[in-house]
Amino acid sequence: MTARKSLLKVILLGDGGVGKSSIMNRYVTNKFDAHLFHTIGVEFLNKTLEVDGNQVTLQIWDTAGQERFRSLRTPFYRGSDCCLLTFSVDDNQSFLNLSNWKKEFIYYADVKEPENFPFVVLGNKVDVTERQVSTEEAQMWCQENGDYPYFETSAKDATNVAVAFEEAVHRALAADDKADHLIPTDTVKLHRKPRSATSCCS
Amino acid sequence: MAELKSPDTRRCRYFFLYDGSKVRGEGDPTRDGICYFYPEETPMDKQDLLCGQLAGVGRCVSELSSSAVRILRLRRCKFAIRMKDDFFWALGCSMEVPTVSVCELLDHLIDLFCFYNGSVRQSYQLNSKETLAAEWARYLSHVLSGPSELHYILQSVRTLDLTNVDPLLLLKAALILQACQRCPLVLAGCVLFRGRVVSTQMPPQLTIKVMVHESETYAKTQRSSGRSTPTSDGGPVSATAVFLTPSELQYLQSAPVDKISSSHSAPEKDAPPKKTRLSRTLSDIPSSESTPSRPASCQSLQRASFSPHTSSSEDSVFSPAPSQGSSADSPNPSPLSPIRRFSYGGNAHEAEGGTPDSLHSGGGGVSQMPSERDGSAFEESLHLSRGAASEMTDCGNAAFRDEKTPAGEGGVCCLKPRGHKAEMRQPPSGSCSFDSLEESPLVSMALYVHRVNSLVLALLVEPCFMGDSASMEEVNHSSLASLNGLEAHLRAISPAAPGAAGPYLFAHYDSVQSTLTTNVSGRPGGASEYLFVRATSLLHSHFFDTETLQEAIIRSAGTAVYGTRSVAQETYFQQHGGSMRNSGIPNQQDSAFSLPSKARHRLLKHGVNLL
Question: ω before B39 within 30° of 0 (cis)?
């Protein structure tokens, strides 16, 4: 537990217009702007958290959902510690596209063990009254795809946003710990950096 | 000045500012008037001599000819001159630098000083000579440290290599700027990456000024931290006071309105061209009061805080167009901005034709300085064959001659006021023809700079912005994530391989945006490049001097350089290799005549369209 990462990269993926940028802004600046423009490519914000007494910088990457920005966003998937798959509960198509987003992420992030990678699913815009995706449907999908945690959020009224990110951090740290214990046997570490509790921020 | 990169001596041999008010009586030593002299190690006696002589000659000539002196030649040096009240500036270059460029450079230097320090007179009242000497040295070194000789001749904004950047990223940068403008205290801004422009909302001349501050702080952080650390350091946001000319301010405030072309500008659009040309009267100029969208509270605050400037209006602004005297009481066409002249093509011609050429008579005859004519020798040795498009002949059309005296004719020439050229580079909405009004005070603003590693967001803001934490937060929130992202994107772009230069050299100057595209490396030593640059500078001179000249080929026995220009651009092209078929007289087989079509063909892939 002492060798924890001090920078966690969390990436938000999902169709255009589901509210990825708004979720990020709500979490980091606690603001909501109903008139955001399409995100072009990627953007990110840092937020410093304290987890189990350690300072962790959460780097939240917001991506462009539109297909035409694909080539701009995909190079930035690498190195993610957690992926937040986002859809909008008032848009069934965005829910159906979750599988595609997961596939795209696994492919471009070059995830070695996709079954162990921490995904978190967010159903945004729960403040909207006309839902197209029920909670059960979403939970079912999460269960079938690898038992991902599911949160129903609203960036507009701040419902569940912080909770979802906290869960993402915990998943990411847990996955990191697991990876530390599982030293692959078919590789040889030529140089292992001496890590100690005191050198956590250098 | 240890930091001063030793500039190419061709670019600048001397630069000085002399304050005549310090030397009134017979006994006053000249050196008391010397505010700054470059090179700083010049012996005091020589400084005295140059300052005293040039200032004397300058004053004498301007009084005799009752127009401003722009260029003096002394031995093998060409001095651009500016005079304002008791101040006298001179920038000395080698003879081969085009006169236009030297004059522009000097203007640019002074503009830079005023942008960061306010009025020259007041600066010298408030600060010590030494402090301000450091300022001059700073701007001089910045101006002279351009990447290549071409940038020096064609003063241009350095932009990102656009062929290498996804246009969507440029859109992203533009949107960041627009988002910032939602705060009413933000006038305009630009986004810079590694000292190059990604996107700007400001006219090029203003962008160049802003970039001086940026590139300096960038250099400083590079020096202090060795390498810039990936996470931004403690204070990524800074601010500095700057001073805008009224016309710059007016442009910035009016630009969005004009762009939207809402009902405000509709009547102007419908107005016949004739009316537009009449706008040399004050009443036709849109007054700054009519420009909307400035919170009244801030405006009044601003007015109040400027009172020291407005009170000393006499010396507060340095007018870029030095011929106010003549423009006021003679039908000299100078108030007509070239924008109008160009945009109305033939009409403008007529407007010019009837004007008596006051400058012409003044220029040639007055007080010939002892000058060896070696400067023009080069020009004469090269044949200037004018392209088919231009009907100009050497002997004809005296109407055009009023604009200038031919290069190399006399020791002293009164050049066309520089204001024209400067204005030409700004969109017409700027309507800067009143730059020359003496009583226009500089307006104090703030330059807000937010740095994310190599990416910089620079915003011109109302001075009260910096004390307004709500506005600062708003701007920060609306831009931070996008800046982070844009920086990541731009950093990920691998620098384009320099690529083989190809069998040709070219330089393409966009005079609206002041950008230069070229495959000239700027590395020293290339003999062929050197010739190309010299030919380019000569053609550039000719284009400036001869308004109707559109195409020209300049040639020696071995090679030829083709130049073409329009209202918006200048393009120069030289084909390497291939035997020059040149019999000495114009000949159908002459390979020089195929240059225009080659240029059109070759430059298409560089995004230069000459069709």
Answer: yes
Question: Is B274 domain-assigned?
Answer: no
pLDDT in tens, B40-92: 888 888 888 888 888 888 888 888 988 888 898 888 888 999 988 888 999 98
Domain that holds residue B18: 12-145
* Residues listed for chain A: 202
Helix axes B527-545, B99-117, angle to 10 degrees: 80
Q: What is the pTM of this model?
A: 0.72
User: Domain boundary at B436, B465, B494, which?
Assistant: B494
Q: Tell me: do B478 and B596 sit in the same domain.
A: no
Chain A 115-174, residues with CB within 8 Å of chain B CB atoms: none
**Residue B200 and residue B190 in contact, taking contact as beta carbons nearer than 8 Å:** yes
Q: Does B480 touch chain A (CB under 8 A)?
A: yes
Q: What is the pLDDT of residues B534-584, one digit of tens each?
A: 888 889 988 988 889 999 988 877 788 899 998 888 999 988 765 555 656
| Secondary structure (3-state) at B244 | strand
Tell me which residues of chain A, numbers 4 to 33, contact chain B at a CB-CB cutoff of 8 Å.
Answer: 21, 24-25, 29, 31, 33
Residue B218, SS3?
helix
**Domains identified in chain B, total number:** 3
Q: Are residues B484 and B600 in the same domain?
A: no
Nearest CA in chain A to B172: A40
Q: Are B83 and B192 in a shared domain?
A: no
Min distance B261 CA to chain A CA atoms (Å): 23
Restricting to A residues 31-50, those with a Cβ less than 8 Å away from any Cβ of B are: 31, 33, 37, 39-45
Q: Cβ–Cβ of A25/B172 closer than 8 Å? A: no
